[in-house]
Amino acid sequence: MISYILRRTFAAVILLLVVSAVTFAIFFLLPRLAGQTADQLAQQYIGKAPSKADIAAVKHNLGLDQPVYVQYWHFIKGIVAGADYSIGPTTVHCDAPCFGYSFKNHQAVWPELTSRLPITLSLAVGAAVLWLVSGVIAGVISALKPRSVLDRAFMGIALTGVSLPMFFTGNLAILLFRYQWPIFGSEYVPLTENPSQWANTLFPAWCSLALLYSAIYARLTRSGMLETMNEDFIRTARAKGLREGTVITRHGLRAALTPIITVFGMDIGLLLGGAVITESVFSLHGIGQYAVQGITDNDLPKILGVTLLAAFFVVIANLVVDVLYAAADPRVRLS
Amino acid sequence: MRRSALAAIAAIGSASLLIAGCSKADDNKNENGNTKSAGANAATKGVVNASDKKGGTLTYELSDVPDSFDPGNTYYAYMYNLSRLWARPLMTFKPGAGEEGNTLVPDLAAGKGVPSDGGKTWTYKLRPGLKYEDGSPITSKDVKYAVERSNFARDVLSLGPNYFQQFMADADKYKGPYKDKSAKGLSSIETPDDTTVVFHLKQAFQEFDYLVAAPQTAPVPQAKDKGVDYVKHIVSSGSYKFQSYEDGKQAVLVRNENWDAKTDPLRKQLPDKIVVNLKVNPETIDQDVLAGKAIDLAGAGVQASTQADVVTDPDKKAGTDNTFGGRLVYMAINTKVAPFDKIECRKAVQYAIDKVSVQTAEGGPIRGEIASTVLPPDIPGYAKSDVYATSGNKGDVAKAKEQLKACGKSSISTNISARSDRPQEIDAATAIINSLKKVGINASLKQYPSGKYFTDYAGVPKFTEKQNLGLIMMQWGADWPSGYGFLQQILNGKAISQSGNTNLAQYDNKDVNALLGKAIGTQDTTERNSLYTQIDKKTMDDAVLVPLTYFKVLLARPQNYTNLVSTAAFSGQYDYLNIGVASK
């Protein structure tokens, strides 16, 4: 098991390097190949009517006057060993992992990412618990009572949930629960400061996000359970005289969980990289909102930072999923 | 006698309220018990909910993030407006309705600038007793330092304008305070004593008082300047100071105890606390504004969905202000792209466009009035005129074809550019394409992202010529409310640059260039404004810009806030200097 995790960790590091190189190339190399000069790149980050001296100074300060491979090397070196940046009157040291400074407002990227991560984490985990529990329960009931009223009701809700875009359900939830019936708060409060207000503020966002995701889980669980409950080992378990509840949860659901774990791992990994629309709709200052700002401002270090963080979470989530496979399904071995 | 005296007092009181256009905050309920509005457009005519009531928390919400809270690193109109709460420039705009808001008044300075040397030298005296939030005195050296850091260190403080860099004498020799560590600094700004600051310019500039109304002249103590990190610990010279600041999320301001009302005839310091929430969902902002809980900091007006709601409900409409935003929506005709180098072809375009269809595409009359001049009505120098008048503003196919024939063409193939992330601009361009098609001008739409519109595409003359971009969609607002502030960047032939160009028509007319130069050196305001009118007329005669609409904003007025007045000085936004809270 340990050697497996080590191997996967090493592969993950290589993968992240590849992701960083590709992302860097997309944002720094492609514009050059398309004919954009370093001066034009630099000029995006200066106010109106810059002088030639202004452009030259900004180009130098952002490192855009260097070859792209040198810029990439400095970026990677910064992540591992930190880097020095001029902030005007002085030069400051940006500690590792240094993801660079925003080209727009010259603020360090990494502290911004870490300050926003708890919000994204709160959103993702809370919603994940809701959609996992509701989706799996709905899926199991539907599978055990196929074509029943409950089955049709759950699947109908699932279909509706997956069909409605977040900017509709989110805005509707805000309108209903913050203005029509002001039950929920609007200002995010950290879990450590006030757990009840934290949950109160995030609940509409959790529900909106869970409605979107639980549909997939309900359908996945339903199809998985329908298939599993007809397997020979279920018949054997019943023949051994096990209670039906035990047969469903310990044998049926456990075997049907494998594809759910796979999808769950991916979803959580992606969400931790930023639930872009949900965070924007609910005005949550998470990673996703930071990504949107980076894209709006064409702020390459911000975009690069979010991309790498998202890739990191996806890679880690996949690793955890692979390890969980073995625990969930005895037929899988990691050796 | 007593009764008549009371009646006289009552009459005078009522009259003064009417004259001042004020509506009081306290008797503000209608028959249903709901908050009564002062009426549609009330804040464009006077102060709504005038009150000196102190206390409460005032909330601003913004769907975006500002460029910076640092007064030396910002260029957004709403930050020019808001930053005056913590950064007092030498001059500012009087809180007043509409064009009255364009009136310049001294802020940190004791009086207006005193010109000498024919307008090449400007001297300002600071008010006595000025202090920072920490109680230390504000001196003229801090004003000088603020100008130096904001204009001459653009490698780190890059987001503000650089007018001082352009206009100060000896500017090209100065490397900025972070590189030039000498005590002297920029030689063309002198501080003979702690309360006097003297600016020496390259050329006569009679609107220098406007320039020093920018937050870039708000004092910054050199010892506390941390360059880009100054934004995290701004030292206030205004009536509020920062309690907390989270980049891209929120700023909280509280009263500055060391601000002295005796040194400041403009500010009232009404709320206990001011909260600025950033990156708030635009729909949420509208809901909060309508609920009286927030002000839309950007002042760009309500969302389209909210607009439909408020304009159809008389009660809600009474709580709105529909006003000019100091901007012109126009289409530049590129004089360097054939056949638009010929005036007749340009005139054909002028006559061909159905401006009503363009107005409709942009959201109707509430979002803009049909335009026929370069200067919008809220900018001094505007004079009503319509050189290419057509019946009902719907275009004149016959006249357009006549001009086309005079140009030696029966049809034209060209391209029209618009910003891909501005749907209204794309819709307007599409309406123009349909108009032009009727006279034989076939224009294909080219879309470019707004972030690179000027640096890579429409603002790069070589690119426009190579891509046959004959027509370019544009929207423009003045950096300061004067003809020069509006026209200089879009009509001055000397301002054409190879990238980041905003003179999109590449219009280089000797007469216009000379008139601009003459205007800025003319001391008499009336004469100067008449020169701006002449420039406007000359430009229209040359048919290089097609004015489409005078941009308007539809602001929802939060009922719970006091002293709301929409000012032309800040694109129709409410003046943020003295807004208070009616009930806590």
UniProtKB/TrEMBL annotation, chain A:
Domain ABC transmembrane type-1, by residue range, is 117-325
Topology in the membrane? Multi-pass membrane protein
Please report a single Pfam family linked to this protein. Answer: BPD_transp_1_N
Any signal peptide, and if so, which residues? Answer: none
Compartmental location:
Cell membrane
Listed transmembrane segments:
12-30, 119-141, 153-177, 197-220, 260-283, 303-328
**Gene Ontology cellular-component terms listed:** plasma membrane
| Superkingdom assignment | Bacteria
**Is tRNA processing found in the keyword set?**
no
Q: Does the keyword Zinc apply?
A: no
Q: Which family does it belong to?
A: Belongs to the binding-protein-dependent transport system permease family.
Q: What is this protein called?
A: ABC transporter permease
